[in-house]
Write a structure and sequence with these properties.
mainly alpha, 24 helices, two-stranded parallel sheet
């Protein structure tokens, strides 16, 4: 297969990349307005070092914890047999259904001891580990057994076999998960704000909300982008340049499932039960409590408002997820199959954008739509574009893990027969990636259902979604009134996860 991508593919990925440059342009325009003196004051004030250290420490701890927990859960569920396994295969994905700020307010309502550093690490780890569990679990289903069997037949220990035969095949999925979780922690605001843990993003939001200074907020966002660049390069170094494919005749042999003894089954069941209760049980129980107890719930008995909020969330989340996955496919395909400086850097551009807070992305779209496209200002189209900018890396992460496990030999055969790259992609590559595409759509859809910042700023004032309704009520401390919307958000976010785990990855 030629290394040079087709002209139409180059043109397509450039067109996809152009809208992603708008927030960067906005940041540059606004940051230059701050001035050198003010920039030095902002960047070198004593509190800046504290905020940066808090942010980096939180990011590192949550990333390590989520990756370790997600990988462990994936191995236990894919390689072992114990009672309750079918239930936990679905349950370990359900924390994605609960927005982090919803989990935080339920824990805060239970005990104030979760405030601060350790509470934030614990809650955010429990909310983020499915981002590692799902890609690693999908990769484990397609691993090449021959490499592990050869290593064991040569007398190598299980530990050596894991690090030299299994782990290299997992590096694409783990590396992508590390990048995604780290960037998410870098820009997290709602959860850390509720838990009273000061990070770099709180300074950005305070600069805008309290001082109404967009320029200073943009300057601080530029610092986040610099940190993000370092993380992206670190992920590239971690992944390395090697690529491993499945060997054999195209059929992946299933791994033998190890059956635990009764004692080990009890320990494993208790382990997963503990994770389930902490990540799902406590938030759901507290939501039910606030639904039953409290006198503010009477304000949320308007079922027409319920239905309107749900329909708005479903519509814009579905369209946003569809646009995101469609745009992510050519980016990932070009970067993996036609690797070059152009394709790789356009593929990494969304990850840099992921370090920009949703507030800044929303403000950039407001700025450009008001000045250059006033007709679409405060329409669903702008919200969908914002969703595409925010969550394109999430779709890329899942699609890359799926594509890199597919050998390109069959594509080479198609090319030798004179077929065009687009025909090969449409008839061979795309069908083989359907499980990864379904996973990418589900992950993006779930996150769009609970997206808050961009939705608040870009939707018309008279239009509510489930997440904005929850935020409005909780901002007024009306937890009982917010609970019905939160429960609807959890319910209708959980259905796609259940179907995906039950049927798509059966």
């Amino acid at each position: 297969m030629p290394r040079r991508p087709p002209f139409w593919l180059i043109l397509l990925i450039i067109l996809i990349g152009l809208p992603l440059c708008l927030p960067f342009l906005y940041i540059i325009l606004r940051a230059t307005e701050v001035g050198l003196t003010r920039s030095v004051e902002l960047l070198f004030r004593p509190r800046m070092a504290e905020l940066l250290s808090n942010t980096m420490l939180l990011m590192v701890c949550v990333t390590i914890g989520a990756i370790s927990l997600g990988t462990l859960c994936a191995f236990l569920l894919e390689r072992c047999r114990f009672f309750g396994k079918a239930f936990f295969e679905v349950a370990m994905s359900l924390p994605l259904c609960i927005p982090a700020f919803v989990s935080c307010f339920t824990w805060i309502s239970l005990t104030f001891r979760v405030e601060g550093f350790w509470g934030t690490i614990g809650i955010m780890t429990l909310s983020s580990f499915p981002l590692a569990y799902l890609p690693v679990s999908a990769t484990l289903k397609r691993l090449d057994r021959s490499l592990e069997e050869i290593s064991l037949s040569l007398g190598k220990s299980p530990t050596y076999t894991f690090w030299h035969a299994i782990f290299p095949q997992l590096k694409p999925a783990i590396g992508s998960s590390i990048l995604l979780i780290a960037l998410h922690m870098l820009v997290e605001f709602g959860a850390v704000s509720i838990l009273n843990y000061q990070t770099f993003t709180t300074a950005i939001f305070q600069e805008y909300e309290m001082s109404f200074n967009n320029s200073s907020a943009a300057l601080l966002s530029a610092v986040l982008m610099a940190i993000c660049t370092i993380i992206v390069f670190g992920e590239i170094f971690f992944r390395g340049k090697q690529t491993l494919y499945n060997s054999g005749k195209g059929v992946t042999r299933p791994y033998p499932v190890k059956k635990f003894s009764f004692g080990k089954q009890c320990i494993t069941f208790a382990f997963f039960s503990c994770i389930f209760m902490l990540s799902i049980g406590v938030p759901v129980v507290m939501l039910i409590y606030w639904l039953i107890v409290g006198n503010s719930r009477e304000r949320a008995v308007d079922f027409s408002e319920f239905f309107a909020a749900f329909s708005h969330s479903l519509t814009i989340s579905g369209l946003g997820a569809l646009l995101t996955v469609i745009c992510a496919l050519p980016l990932v395909w070009a970067a993996v199959r036609y690797s070059s400086k152009l394709t790789v850097w356009i593929d990494r551009l969304p990850y840099l954008l992921h370090a920009v807070p949703g507030l800044v992305i929303a403000l950039s779209l407001v700025y450009f739509t008001i000045n250059y496209a006033n007709a679409i200002y405060q329409t669903f189209l702008v919200v969908i574009v914002a969703y595409f900018m925010l969550y394109l890396p999430m779709a890329q992460t899942t699609l890359r893990a799926s594509l890199e496990q597919l050998s390109d030999n069959i594509e080479k055969v198609g090319q030798s027969l004179g077929r065009s790259p687009f025909y090969i992609f449409r008839t061979l590559t795309l069908p083989a990636m359907l499980p990864g595409i379904a996973a990418a759509f589900a992950l993006v859809f779930l996150n769009l259902m609970k997206e808050l910042t961009a939705t608040l700023l870009l939707t018309p004032n008279d239009i509510k979604t489930l997440s904005t309704a929850v935020w409005e009520y909780t901002s007024d401390a009306q937890y009982a009134a917010a609970t019905p919307y939160a429960l609807m958000l959890v319910l209708f976010s959980g259905i796609p996860v259940f179907l995906l785990k039950k049927y798509a990855f059966k």
